Structure formats: C-alpha cells, structure tokens
Amino acid sequence: MSSACIFKGLGFSPPAHSRNDWIGPPDKHSNLRPVIFYVPPKESPLERRLREARQEAQACDQRFWAQHNRAFRQEKEEFIYSRLKAKGLEMRDETGQKATLNAEEMADFYKDFLSKNFRKHMQYNRDWYKRNFTITFLMGQVALARALRWLRWKKKNVGN
C-alpha cells in the first residue's frame, strides 16, 4: 500500500505540484506520522532504491508499533480488570466513571509488559538499525551521484 493511500484514508493528501515529502497526522494505531515521499519526474534507479527503502522502513515501523500498541492497550485493560476484580470492584464506579488503579499498581503492569516484550523490542531495534544504516548508505550514494552529475553539468556548461 502506498503512503498516498494511507493519507487519502485520513482525508489528507499534498498538492499535486508539491516537490517535497509530506508528513501526515499521527496514525491512530501506531501514533506514527506517515510520510508521502516525493517522486521526482526523472528519479534515478539509485534514488528509487532509496525512496523504496524509506517507504519499507516506514511500513515496518507502522506494523510494529500498531501491533505493539494494540497489545499494550489490550493487556493493560486485562490487567486493570483483573486487579479491580480481585478487589471486588467493577470497571466503572457508581457514578459511571471508569475505575483506575494507583501509580504503583500500574508500575507493576508497565514493568511486566516491558520485561515480557524485551526480545521483541531488541529484535525491532536490531532491524531498525539495519534498515537505517542501509538508508544512510543509500543517501550517501545519492548525494555523491548528484554531486558528480552537477560537476559534469558545470564542466560542460563552463566550456560553452
């Protein structure tokens, strides 16, 4: 799915004449801000590889954080429910307000959740570094190719 499709679903798309990447509003599941990447009319194969690597990194981050946040919310609700039930309380108090736990009780949940997901986070971080190293390397190659193209153009036009 292209990032343009993601934005259209949010009711956002950059103007057709835009020559820049555009950053959209945060996704409601991942909390990440999706990007519509500008595609230049004469995009080189190397520039295309860079753009596609950036799009794939964005898609990987989107998937990971949407799944992570979904699991977090679900497990948090289950934790609160089980703690309230153990105390003989309902999810809502007599006024209809959602019942809550104190900070120490929630700290237990956060600690357990992070411990339980430690390996997932470590794998995500390793993958993130690999993807971003590749992107950085491609960015260097694109910058070098553009500089060489500019120097060749300048050399050609200085002689005229």
Q: What order do the helices and strands follow? A: HEEHHH
- The count of strands amounts to 2
Main sheet summary: 2 strands, antiparallel
Number of helices: 4
Level of helix content?
55-70%
Low-pLDDT parts are: 1-6
Strand order of the largest sheet: 1-2
Strand percentage: under 5%
- Give average pLDDT, whole number: 90
Distance between the termini: 47 Å
- Radius of gyration, whole Å: 24 Å
Shape: elongated
Structural class: mainly alpha
Structural summary, described in words:
With 160 residues, this protein is mainly α. Helices cover 65% and strands 2% of the residues. The protein has helices at 3-9, 45-86, 103-116, 118-158; strands at 22-23, 35-36. Strands 1-2 form a two-stranded antiparallel ribbon. The longest helix is centred in the middle third of the chain and has 42 residues, at 45-86. The radius of gyration is 24 Å and the shape is elongated. It starts with a helix and ends with a helix.
Topology diagram in text:
Blueprint: H1 3-9, E1 22-23, E2 35-36, H2 45-86, H3 103-116, H4 118-158
Antiparallel strand pairs: 1-2
Helix pairs in contact: 2-4
Write out key terms for the chains shown.
single chain, 160 residues, two-stranded antiparallel sheet, 2 strands
In short:
The protein is mainly α. It contains 4 helices and 2 strands; from the N terminus they run αββααα. Helices cover 65% and strands 2% of the residues.
